[in-house]
Every structure is written in structure tokens, then in C-alpha cells.
Amino acid sequence: MIRIFLFFILFTIPLHSASIKLNIDLGGPTFGRVFVSVYNSEASFKKMEGSVVKQVFDISPTRSYTLETVPTGTIAVMAFYDVNNNGKLDKNFIGIPKEPVALSNDYRPKGPPSFKQASIRISEGKETQVNLIFSSSKKTAIVSFGGVGLMSSSYYKGVEGVRVLAVPSLTYIGDRVQVFGPRVQAGILKTDRFSLTGSSAFIMSAYKKEDSYLFTELAEKESRVFAGLTAEWRVFNARLSVGREGNGRDVVDKLGISQQYSVKEFNVSPSLKVKKLNSAYAQDGFSMNKDYIPQDAYIYSPGLTVSSFLTDKWTFFLSVNIDILCDSLRESPLVEKRYAYSGIVSISRMI
Q1: Backbone phi, psi, residue 17, to 5°
Q2: What is the overall mean pLDDT for the chain?
Q3: What gap in Å lies between CA 21 and CA 305, rounded to an integer?
């Protein structure tokens, strides 16, 4: 029994560890609890999951506390003051903390925190002093301005090359409402594992008569606005989504799955969506004859999104998608290629 106990001790305590003395400056509060977490990787720090040390302290008059058995090497400390005593960090709809937060290295980010800027070096056998100065975020929204490049190809006959368009962009990310260029979305309901979002988007014309000789007999497909709802569930590390968008006549149902990975300073998210077009939508976009309506009209859309805060002010975003037509749409006399791709890249500065 003693051997088993010693074996357990050896493999649960880090072989190389040190201690951290925390000096906490909360400002006004003299009671309550402070939750402290220590992270030793960029991936765990970004998700605020998988901390190597986690401890809760009751606020004391000295405001000085000690963390034992902290793994040596590069780490970052994050702490929050639990204002409502519910045992978790409360955030608004877009993830901005609603309770006072402090980070090591005297780091006070203006956007999502960076592990690199919050990190400190811990040496074995030494006690490291860490000052944690708590502050509540006064920011209720993120506004950025920059440039965006759009590109797309086409699966229609007679439409050659790639369309490229460069335009200025304005992004607004508020607690409930977000604006991404021509798309507006509003949060309706959010929990740790589920969210319900309403959205509205400006959809550009699928084709113009001058694009191809095949379109001369077709009615001009005008640009329009789509609106709808999307429900999203977090299952393990993946996100599953179900949604419907349309304008009353044209309707598309969407089923999607995505997963996010951290690669150094970048968030990388591969995804797959299946879009089902209703008969009116399929007829408008793929039929020359009103008597012919494509059946079981599906579009399969794998994609990849890469984003990063290049600095505290500058952001980078890249999204690439491929639309793959199902057999019934591929058989349309308007279609030459089975797939088309689209992409968007933007660099913005927060203001």
C-alpha cells in the first residue's frame, strides 16, 4: 500500500516545479473569492481550458497568496474576481469578460489576450513574484476598419476566370449584434454549449446576362436579402450547426460541422457544410426551362478559416470555401464545372 501511495505521489506532482507568490490588487473589494489558473501552452490559454494549476483563494487583508508545485518553464497566469459568487467567469455574448480579470506580466490586452505577452519564465527551486492588477473591461464592442479582398470562380458555362474585388470594410462586434460587411447577426440565446443566432445578409446576383450567352433567355437574377436562424451546439471540441435562410421564395437549409485549432498565433478552423436548396432556389439558379426543376438539390461546401490578432490592434482573417454540386445540379444545361470556389481575405485595425 505504501508503494502504491508513493507511486501516485511521484506521478501526480511535477518532477520540476516551483512556487509563485501572487500579489493581488483588486481595488475596492474586501471580500469574496479569486479564481487563479496557470497555463503552459498557447492552445490551452486561448481556450482557457486545460490549466496545469487551478486554485481558489478567499480574499484576505494581506492580498498575498502562494501557488505551489507550478511547472517550470514558460507559463501565463490568469485570474478573475467572482463578483456574483457563481464559480465561473461571466462573459458577454462575444466572450468579453463581465467580471474583473488580471493577467501575469502586467499585461492588459485591448483585444483577445496573447499567451506570448502574458507569459513569464518560472525556474525550479525559486519563488517568482507575480503582480495581478484587476480591471473590468469597459469595452462593450470591437470596431475595426480595413480592407477586404473577395474572389470567386463559377461553375456556369461560358463564365471564365476568377472574379476579384477589393473594397474597404467595417466590422462591428457588439455584445448581441455583429456586423461583418454585408452580413448582420444578432445573438438570441447563449449557454456554455448552445447558441441561437438570427442573421440577415445581402446576397449578390448569381449571374448577369452578359456573363454568358446561355443567360440571354433567363430573367435577370437580382441581388436580394436573406434572413434566417442558426442553432449551434458545442460537442467536445467540435461545433455542430443547423440553420435556415431565405427571402420567402428562395430558401436554403444548412447543416455544418467545424473544429478550431491553435497553430502558434493563428486560429485555424476547418469546416464542412451541406446546403439544401428548395425547388424555387434550384430552378432560379440552374434551370433554363421552368418545367425542369432539379430534384434533391444539394451543395457540399468544405472550407477553411484562418484568423489571428497580429498585434493588439491589427487583425487578419482568411476564409476559403469550395462549393461542390450534387449530381442533379451538375446535370443542368447551364453548368460546366462541378465545383466553384470563393475566398475572402482581410486585414483590419481596431479603432
Answers
A1: -140, 165
A2: 82
A3: 40
* CA torsion, ordered 142, 200, 342, 259, to nearest 10 deg: 60
Mention every residue, 6+ apart, whose C-beta is less than 8 A from residue 122.
Answer: 18, 20, 70, 71, 72, 73, 74, 75, 128
Round the CA-based radius of gyration of the chain to a whole number and report it.
Answer: 26
- Candidates 127, 143, 136; CA nearest to 101 is 136
Closest of 180, 232, 216 to residue 288, by C-alpha: 216
Residue where the block lists cell 420567402: 248
Query: Considering only the top CATH level, what class is 15-133?
Result: mainly beta
Q: How does pLDDT run across 259-280, given as a tens digit for each residue?
A: 988 777 788 999 999 999 998 8
Q: pTM, whole model, 2 decimals?
A: 0.72
At 6, which amino acid appears? L
- Per domain, the residue ranges of the chain are 15-133, 141-350
Query: Are 128 and 122 in contact, with CB atoms under 8 Å apart?
Result: yes
Degrees to nearest 5, angle at CA 221 with 186 and 322: 65
First to last CA, the chain: 63
CATH code reported for the domain at 141-350: 2.40.160
In the Cβ-directed half-sphere of 337, how many Cα atoms lie within 13 Å? 14
pLDDT above 70 covers a percentage of the chain that reads 85
Q: Which backbone phi and psi does 115 adopt, to 5 degrees?
A: -60, -40
Long-range contacts of 89-94 (CB under 8 A, 24+ apart): 89/35, 89/48, 92/140, 92/175, 93/175, 93/176, 93/187, 93/190, 94/142, 94/173, 94/174, 94/175, 94/178, 94/187
Residues with Cβ within 8 Å of residue 347, at least 6 apart in sequence: 146, 147, 310, 314, 315, 316, 317
CA pair distance 83, 99, nearest whole angstrom: 6
Q: What is the pLDDT of residue 165?
A: 81
